[in-house]
Amino acid sequence: MPAGRAQGLSLRQLVTVEPVLFLYAFGLFMNVPVAQQFVYSRLSEAKGFPYHFQQKTGCEGKELNDSMKKLEKEVQTEASYVQLGIVMFSAIPSIIISLFMGGWSDKVGRRPALILPTLGSALEAVVVLFVMYFKLPIYCLFIGGFLHGICGYYTTIILACMSYVADTTEQSVIALRLGIIELIVFLGGMVAQLTSGLLIEKLGFIAPYWIIFGCHVAAMLYAIFFVPESRVKSSTETGRLFSMENFKSPWRVYLKATGHIKRNLVVLTFCTGILSIAVLGINGVVNLFTLHSPLCFSPEYVGYFLAFRQFMHGVGGVTAIKVFGMCMSDANISRIALVSYIGFLVCLGFSTTLLMVFISPIVGIFGGAGPPVLRAMMSKIVSADDQGSLFSAVSSIEVLCTFGGTALFNSLYPKSLKFDVPGFVFVLGAILMLLPLFCTFCLRDQSMFKRKRKIANSPGGYEKIGDGPEEEHDDERYADDSPDNVSVDSPIIPPSPEEVPAKYV
């Protein structure tokens, strides 16, 4: 193993796609509370419910009479369905686009897959600003979600970042590297949500959305001018995005896998899908839950809680990967993460006071380690040329499950209000999390997660681990990676001198 790789991650590795992802995540996560509370405010105004986003409490006192409680349920129900509509118009087009985007980025490079979603998010911000300035119907927000979706949405930028990391990172640190990517998302969300409540209370809804627009434009410009390409553009393959070859490539990764590799890929993909239901699909309900009586959080406290949750999951996730990775397998780290997140959901579901709500992220501190560890395990058993296709399939399934989770929880939440148990959806999410926890015990031949494969565009491969017949056969499949004919003038990241094995010097 090259000495430079063994010692850790260089600064050049750490600062590539991270600024793009941070700016995009900042804008995306600030959009969630701002847009949702804007919708909640418009609906409350239309129905005559006393919601005041510029006061320290969202309700007029903690106790509401029967008529106000009925009105509150109407506002919460309609706001829940509007949020579901926005997610639907964003998620469904993005799933279709990402299925083409993964194989396409394997051929033409990762930068186009980074640029397109930032353009879409900027267009969505423009639509939302028009709705706010001209007091257009709130259902016009669906147009912005659709524009963001056809440009790839969160699905595409995540697959691009994960593929970029897989292209440029040696496998011994790939779980940590993906954990850092996850941390960047959490930090972007933390800063956004920490400031969103204060901005709403002091400036209303329009000023925060100009900040969101500025972040997405900055992310797009950084991706265009400052992110070096990580892959050689194929001279033989077509660069056409909408081709059946690109559409089939994500599923071919699973079809050509054999034996324990196929089993593990399917199990891990199932785990990430269910994880997306409980982690991302439940986000919209979290906001409504904190706005509901008896909590009645103000926008400021909603922001504080969401930021604290992001911080605990992000920092705790990276810490778990780094510390537990010294003495545990990836599978065991994922189990700890899943148990921790189950604790978070149960604790939040039974919260009736501000203190209980803020304790729940502490219980789930290691929950953020789950997604990056599961993705790293999949990346380790797939060849360098299939990273984009793999993450295209994974991110599409994650977004599809996120949409399914959003539909499930946003539909059940209004019904749970009829029985005065708004925390029921979080308990249900915790029960669903038991499925991936049990599935991690179905993984076979875990030595394959330590096998080394060639890094894309590296001057040579690394020695494979394993001497069994099946492992030798699997290693042969992963030997045909990308050609290494990178010209001197290429914008593609070249290996640093310390990363070149001695036999090439």
TrEMBL record:
Record's subcellular location: Membrane
InterPro entries for this protein: MFS, MFS_trans_sf, Sugar_transporter_CS
Alphabetical UniProt keywords: Membrane, Transmembrane, Transmembrane helix
Main location: membrane
A Pfam family: MFS_1
Protein name: Proton-coupled folate transporter
Annotated transmembrane regions: 21-40, 81-101, 113-134, 146-166, 178-200, 206-227, 265-289, 301-321, 333-351, 421-443
GO molecular function: transmembrane transporter activity
Superkingdom as given in the UniProt entry: Eukaryota
GO CC terms, sorted: membrane
Region: Disordered, residue numbers: 457-505
Entry-linked PROSITE patterns: SUGAR_TRANSPORT_1
Membrane topology: Multi-pass membrane protein
